[in-house]
């Protein structure tokens, strides 16, 4: 169901979008001295939730414990909030907001949401292991020509293509 | 020069947080604009349906890389200090990348795009987001088990002085400009391939057929930018390929030798040092002991085997000048470095001898007349170079019989001449295994871990007087003994923590050897594997508590007073709160910072003159009350010793509980940032 009566506009030219994203990354390098990132903000939300439920346990844990008692007070959390707002602005502007579960016609809502949730757990876990995700490692580190980031990028595609066949049904029409 | 929030260590400041929000806004906007608010579109790349992810990702990567390299090439930003680089852990990143890829294709989302997906109303994005939070918490819970994996396979590259920071072109052994060209060509090849794949199935994608005029001009444009980046020379863009061995460099070297271009006259070196020219690095390649006896002010001590690592750690645009006593070693070192790809390496003509002869010899002793201008120049050089260090005439003359002011420092010659005398006890604070391998004859092993423990719930506190006297009694130490404390490497703090233990039991007749044990060995001074022959003593209990240790509550009452300085001796990043191993990050409000490391050279403490000058800047008044602390009291004991016993500050106190205790007590105030 569409929230807007006007039909959604088609996506912009990907190369122009890429240049726009690249300039945003460049601005981040020159202003903040660090690139873009998303998974760190997400993990800090996780640390806050765990800290709210089990304060002593979280403060004593080796990984989240380092972030102190207010993990949300961090620039990448602000960046993630900004990304949500920027996405909201653009989606409104291009009339692309609709509440839905994206899937192929033959797939059920339940199947698709299980896929999304399990994939999320894998992504959340592996982003911590690599200290970054597609934004913080692959894109940012790639632009800095860091060996580790480009190795990570290659492995993301290797893992993705290897598993693609087994999860293709969710997109079948 | 551009200063970033990272470079200023102010990423936590409100300004940085606001700008991060703004940058995030444009980040989200770009992603949504590209159509990444749709999991169907994102996952398209894995089924060759829709290659937008590849196009947007590589275009963004290249755009940012081009821009950043131009700005670095123009000298507008110093990447080494202003930009945060992630180190490379091959093992961790390969495992993480493979898992991430599986999660990405299953869900159709990644963390950044899911935020945009949620903003677009996608329920699957919200479920993914929740899953990713669960995954992060899972990582935290499993961290104790998977910790070895987290740092598995660190690269052995060391860039900008950061171990494990690896650049792809160095890993591949190619030049940076060459890599950028190849990488751009590959990306454009991928774009053409992507357009071709999509063009074959227009009915599936609804996208325009491939190879539009826009696409052709876009490809050409990126190619030209990649080629144009070569105008910035490698040295400007911060690259030196250490693996390059070419006949070109050898020919160049021989040509330089022929022209004597590889030499720098001592007068030139002296003037550049005197003017504090930051582009010059003077390297003394002699052994540490000779360096410590006398060196040119401003020189760094790097021995020959350490040179390649040193070269890779410095800014490649700097000029390196090598010297020794004579010319043989620097010439060999220079040739070897040149073969490893390091230009900009010079030898100081006639070495240290030449420097003293040409620059430091008083005009009155010279056989030829001098112009008033050059006499004035020599006078200012003498003032500068002989001010902070012993003059060559003094070397040797003062060595054998330094009057020992205790507590204080003694040198190797003094100690060697007194080994075996009655009433002299040597405490070796190095690791047990190092002591067992060999040690100074008559010395007894007493490690710092035997003088500290958890006390009343706070970890790592200096033991009470009662326990300490039993330890020194077992080690055969009597109240009338003069004690010399030995440390390994630059771990002066081990000796000074032992000194704190001695002071606590009221034993003030001690000194610390002024160089690490390795320097003693390098000088071929006496050593043995035999354990000392001694019997236990009965050291009396101290009569009162010590007068230098303060508690957290005592410190709190002093915080706002005038003429009280709290000196935090932890490394700066801990003081600023960027790093923390404790309950809370930051520092005690109002505390100033000087890391204990700043007082060190590789073999021990800096000269008293250098320390005096540095602390005079920080705390000009020696009657001021100074409370030193670090994390556990260990590092701060070194600063305590420096201030109280070497520099004569009168009111120095030691907060042993340190940041460990302060951070854990939520009732105590904390400040972070600069």
Quick synopsis:
Chain A is mostly helical and 173 residues long. In chain A, 62% of the residues lie in helices and 0% in strands. In chain A, α2 (39-53) packs across α4 and α6 (134-143) packs across α7.
Write structural notes for this entry.
The complex is a heterodimer of chains A (173) and B (674). By secondary structure, chain A is an all-alpha fold. Chain A has 2 domains: 100 residues, no CATH class; 72 residues, no CATH class. Chain A contains 7 helices and no strands. Chain B has 28 helices and 21 strands. A 5-stranded parallel beta sheet of chain B has the order 3-7-6-4-5. The radius of gyration of chain B is 31 Å and the shape is globular. About 5% of the residues of chain B have low confidence. Chains A and B meet through helix 1, helix 2, helix 4, helix 5 and helix 6 of A and helix 1, helix 2, helix 3, helix 5 and helix 6 of B.
Q: Keywords, please?
A:
heterodimer, A: 173 residues, mainly alpha, 2 domains, 62% helix, disordered N terminus, B: alpha/beta, Oxidized Rhodanese, domain 1, 4 domains, 5-stranded parallel beta sheet
**Percentage of β-strand residues of chain A:** under 5%
User: What is Rg of chain A?
Assistant: 19 Å
Rg of Cα set of chain B: 31 Å
Strand order of the largest sheet of chain B: 3-7-6-4-5
Shape assignment of chain A: globular
Low-confidence stretches of chain A: 1-5
Query: How many helices of chain A?
Result: 7
Mean pLDDT of chain A: 91
SSE string of chain A, helices as H and strands as E: HHHHHHH
Number of helices of chain B: 28
Strand percentage of chain B, roughly? 5-15%
Tell me the helix content of chain B: 40-55%
- Count the domains of chain B: 4
Quickly give the structural class of chain B. alpha/beta
What is the 3D shape of chain B?
A: globular
Number of domains of chain A: 2
* Range of helix content of chain A: 55-70%
Counted beta strands of chain A: 0
| First-to-last CA distance of chain B | 21 Å
